[in-house]
Amino acid sequence: MEQGLNIRQMLEKREHDILSPYAAFSDRSMGRDTWEAPCDIRTIFQRDRDRILHSKAFRRLKHKTQVFLAPEGDHYRTRLTHTLEVSQLARTIAKSLLLNEDLTEAIALGHDLGHTPFGHAGERALNRICPNGFKHHLQSIRVVELLEKHGKGLNLSKEVRDGIKNHQMDGNPSTLEGKIVKICDKIAYINHDIDDAIRGKIITVKDIPGEFTDVLGHSLGDRLDTLIHDIISNSENQNDIIMSQDIVAAMQGLREFMFGSVYTNKKAKAQEEQAERLLEHLFLYYEKHLESLPEEYRVRMELREEPSYQVVSDYIAGMTDRYAVSKFKELMIPSAWSVF
């Protein structure tokens, strides 16, 4: 260790020695909304990653649906395994392009913290019934800024929050690390959802159009390898994250195939209408019975003067699939009783 420098400062110096000039450097971060003394061991983005990893919202992801509601079997992906897969893909690309792997990992781990129970079915339900609508990427920002730590938030850096907020299709992250996560989110859900759809006998390998697999590869591993190599080879020494046109076209075609064959498939989506109605019923119940909300949510309405529908939406969005079902049974279904 150089004289006078602590571990964090050594890491920051190493970034300047190793990383691309297009990387986001930890010691040049735009900082946090509320100032904190720097850690002597971890960089700002490493601290953000750890805060996300140790958050309650992150732990709940393991019981939130990715695509298939209540699948029978232990090997289907959840929102947590999807998040970890996005992180792994994004870190591989960031490392290869000499970009900031810590920032990339923090964005990837936080990008879906605001997802509802029951996947996009839950998002549709809240978007339909909540007066302000609902978008999971904006809810992820609410989670890290307002909801975690009993309303204190995680006080993450601006770069991490920017990457989380802009990971959706029409987002425009301000860092290359955020752009990597945005692309890897799509790569992960398309290819890993194919894997789950085959496992669930929704489609077979032969159903996947050859015009796309001939370009990308005929197995999950081959497709991921093709996509990762394409991004790296086209983005190297560039101030952008770039894919070649034929690869972009093939991936878009594969995405459209998945929407037509899986995401709207009656067998795969048989329970989505029930899930949407369940969340709508919960929303209406809590709007009429605000006293049934946990205390910290009721306090928020008083201290922050937030409308009741926003607080109810926050509460329901934070539920896991099984907790939502449990609360529905508790509140909506009469239980057996006896006079004896």
Main attributes of the structure:
single chain; 340 residues; mainly alpha; Hypothetical protein af1432; 2 domains; flat
Task: Write the CATH fold name of the largest domain.
Answer: Hypothetical protein af1432
Total domain units: 2
* Large-scale geometry: flat
The CATH superfamily of the largest domain is known as Hypothetical protein af1432
Classification by helices and strands: mainly alpha
Number of DSSP-assigned strands? 0
Order of SSEs, N→C? HHHHHHHHHHHHHHHH
Low-confidence segments, given as residue ranges, are none
The CA-CA distance between the termini, in Å, is 75 Å
Reported CATH architecture of the largest domain: Orthogonal Bundle
Rg, Å, rounded: 22 Å
Q: How much of the polypeptide forms β-strand, as a percent range?
A: under 5%
In CATH, what is the class of the largest domain?
Answer: Mainly Alpha
Q: In percent, how helical is the residue content?
A: 55-70%
Main sheet: strands, sense, barrel: none
Mean of all residue-level pLDDT scores: 93
Count of discrete alpha- or pi-helical segments spanning 4 or more residues: 16
